[in-house]
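Why run this: before we spend reagent on co-expression, it is cheaper to look at a predicted model of the complex and decide which construct boundaries make sense. The entries below are exactly what would go into the expression plan.
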Amino acid sequence: MPEIFELDFMIRAFGAGLLVAVIVPLIGVFLVVRRYSLMADTLAHVSLVGVAVGLLTKTHPVASAVIASTIAAVLIERLRGVKKIFAESILALFLSGSLAIAIVIISLARGLNANLLSYLFGSLSAIDTGDLYLLGALFVSVVAAVTLLYKEFFLVSFDEELAEASGVRARTLNLIMVILAAVTVSVSMRIVGVLLIGALMVIPVISARQFDRSFLQTMFLSVGFSITSVISGLFLSYYYDLASGGTIVLVSLVMFFISIVANRR
Amino acid sequence: MQMTRTHAIEVNDVCFGHDGNPILEHITFSVDEGEYLGVIGPNGGGKTTLFRIILGLLKPDSGTVLLYGQPISQFKERYLIGYVPQRVALSDMYFPATVEEVVKSGRTPRMGLFKRYKAKDKEAVENAMEMSGVSVLKDRLIGNLSGGERQRVFIARALAGEPRLLILDEPEVGVDLNAQEQFYSFVERLNSKLGMTVLLISHDIDVVAHQSKTVLCLNRKLVCHGPPKQYINEEYMQKLYGKQVRFVLHGH
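The model came back. Tokens follow.
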């Protein structure tokens, strides 16, 4: 057995990485097709507020990140109905606003830099068994929701108005979707970090999109790309002593370029 | 079916405004089961707003809408309405989905939450694709279709739910003439052969004059409502579109 698998923290990292790699694009595909790619990044920045609060109060940073991003997701979804703000402006508002709040909170509490960095960029050694259980529960919820509500999620993403007109509860479904996105972003940030989780949610999906496949195939392809990036990213980061989050995202970027070149017409 | 005729749609004294500007004023009319109603009127005359109110997407400021005798908010069988929204042929289709996936999604409202796709659903979807002539396109991505093909996909999606009422909002936009003609004769057959109630918004007065059984002229107020022969003429068209519009109706 290669020595990488003799290290407990690397085994936990691979376990956590695989769980994240499957659920993140499952949610991401619905965000991307709705032109909501920046949603993931926005929720990640909001999570940072939660992390800062958690670190400052010495409670559970992931828990407060989940709370913060869920509240933000619900607010964003509500504001989307307001005609006088563009959907993307709402995202910009939350993205920059939450970053400001997080920076101020961080400046209030000195000496939490090392901890904070592990959330910003992801830290494999920080993943404990509790994180794995949390991710496992999230994995089950996301896979169950996407499987059970697949046809509704598809309809609402493709044509929200038709869904509403024909009696499908579009608002409720949208809310479920953004809350899943919020929780996924907050819980997954331990792996790739707050700053890069948005990338993992979007890049595998747009790579898969290049292949001009059906929605379902695009979804599976993006999960495939995501798993490949996470696994090879973890190997590369271990053997070359690189930052794991950044390496994972770089691998997915390389796959994106390959997808574009391979599908050039 | 009972012998007493309930109207498919009943619109009672509906008013709607936006930011203080009236868009619809005191609109009252009804649509019988099996009718083919063409709605015409100038841009900004409130045609689409009226459709959105009928579909329950907008709430009227006053007045009521009944679908098969029930207020829309209480109407549970919303899947009985097949809706082809405006500008589908021109819509930007980055969305990765095949024709079959799109048509299948039209079946979702009828199937209900957590229900699996069964044999009868598959049959309805295939039937809808067959009728609309898109079976051969079923594995193509909708983004790679022509305007006319896309339009047929969207009517197939509406038909997949086996609707009793078909609501079409300017389906001809972005579709070439030849495809348009085929499309409208298809819609006409859905009405005459299958007894589907059809509501059509069109800027093509010609189509409405020749296809629909009833015409409704809308310019904020209801200008006319009745057989096309009686109302599609110089006098009413000038009332509807203004004096400067010259009115020429092509014979077919």
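The CA atoms of residues 46 and 72 of chain A lie 7 Å apart. The longest helix of chain A spans residues 8-33. Bring this page to Monday's planning discussion.
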